[in-house]
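Ticket #4471: structure export looks truncated?
Reporter: QA, pipeline team
Priority: medium

Steps to reproduce: submit the single chain below to the structure queue and open the exported record.
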Amino acid sequence: MKILVFSDTHGQTEKMREIIFSNKADTDLVIHLGDCFTDMTEIRDDFPEIAFLCVAGNCDRFFSNDFPLFNLITLEGVTLFFAHGHQYAVQSSLSSLVFAAKSKNASVALFGHTHVPFCEECDGITLFNPGSLELPRDGDAGSYGIINVKDGRADFKIIRVAEN
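Actual output as written to the record:
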């Protein structure tokens, strides 16, 4: 199962749409980690063959309370906990996020908010942040994530997007 992961697109959907289009043949799920979840709702109808999930970020609360602040899904034996991250203060520490994932019996915690890609294991939880496509804060190109899940294992990749 192939999952594309985006976060912090902040109203700019063109690159996300292009990435999904170029990966649609083998993508099963797209997860958007907030800021702005409306970006995902704007383009999901273009890809009816792909499932979409999202959570609200700190900027999304101004628009709607219809989307959850966190979500949990188990795919092929891997349980993913995902949240935007602001409610776990991920800019200063990842310990609250790790605790939240453990409390839900997840082995993976997906988060955004920092606009900086990150992939590391901490206390048995794989922490994965795809970064931001349009507004990276690490001085590098924008990024998104790919997760491949099969037989109870997950592989994670950060993909940098070159400027046009």
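Status: closed, not a bug. The export was complete when the record was re-opened. Leaving a note from the reviewer for reference: The two ends are 29 Å apart (CA to CA).
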